[in-house]
Specification:
Rossmann fold; globular; alpha/beta
């Protein structure tokens, strides 16, 4: 099968920091349009894996391919221009800019605009229209002129996702997008993610198993830097190795916290 049939591939990827090997031969092949949740215990290497894919770290060995083209070792901005974008666990917004201005900053480069002192941003009708469309998608159009610092936590996370998708990337990485949200906020956010990533390839790191099973087409289970399972939610739930290594204990902990008998 041609590698170009995959939106994203990790081929025997390793990452070492000194003598510590964090990622140990990770293998993953994601088809265009699939929604993938990456789960695993603390210290499994999930954030490191995202950092490798997005270019913050270079792998020690192995290959990472985006639509068939090697991206391992490239700069983050180069990978972004090839069509991959990511969010982070902690919101990283321009707090003194409005919601609209945050989104517009994200669309300018993807539309071919570069710094030019003789151009007024207000005159860039195509960029402004695109920013407004993104605001409608993330349900923040009514907050258009509000400073980002005045948003609620859930609104700030929605804006973060808006910035992530504003450039038109076809592969989107979301790092714990629902962390810190209430159950009602999480439920609304799952629907928002599904809507704004429709037709895109999505990888998300998530600890809430309700979110994982409600959002993902497939689940990749990362344990000690290795992908030990990659399959549908139903198959992963029934996988004995996954239950032993991770899933059973996590579900038991969440059930206990909710007062549900084992």
């Amino acid at each position: 099968m041609s590698k170009s049939e995959f939106a994203l591939e990790l081929l025997d990827v390793h990452k070492r920091f000194g003598k510590s090997e964090i990622i140990r031969g990770a293998q993953l092949q994601v088809r265009p349009g699939e929604r993938i949740a990456i789960i695993g215990p603390n210290g499994a290497g999930k954030s490191t894996l995202f950092n490798l894919i997005s270019g913050r770290f270079a792998p020690s060995s192995g290959e990472i391919r985006l639509n068939g083209a090697r991206i391992d070792g490239r700069k983050p901005y180069e990978i972004s221009r090839l069509g991959l974008s990511r969010s982070f666990q902690v919101s990283n917004l321009f707090t003194r800019l409005s919601v609209f201005e945050n989104i517009r900053c994200a669309v300018l480069w993807s539309m071919g605009y570069r710094y030019a002192f003789w151009k007024f941003l207000a005159d860039l009708d195509d960029a402004n229209d695109r920013a407004d469309r993104v605001l409608e998608m993330i349900k923040l159009d009514k907050k258009r002129d509000v400073l980002a610092t005045n948003l609620t936590y859930a609104e700030a996370r929605a804006l973060e996702i808006g910035i992530t998708i504003a450039g038109g990337a076809e592969v989107v990485l979301l790092d714990e997008p629902t962390a810190g949200m209430s159950k009602s906020e999480t439920k609304r956010f799952i629907q928002l993610i599904r809507e704004v990533t429709e037709g895109k390839t999505l990888l998300t790191v998530e600890h809430d198993m309700g979110v994982v099973f409600g959002l993902a087409d497939k689940i990749a289970v990362l344990v000690y830097g290795e992908v030990i399972a990659f399959d549908t939610p139903e198959a992963v739930r029934a996988n004995a190795r996954v239950q032993e290594a991770y899933l059973g204990s996590v579900l038991a902990e969440q059930q206990a916290a909710a007062g549900v008998p084992a």
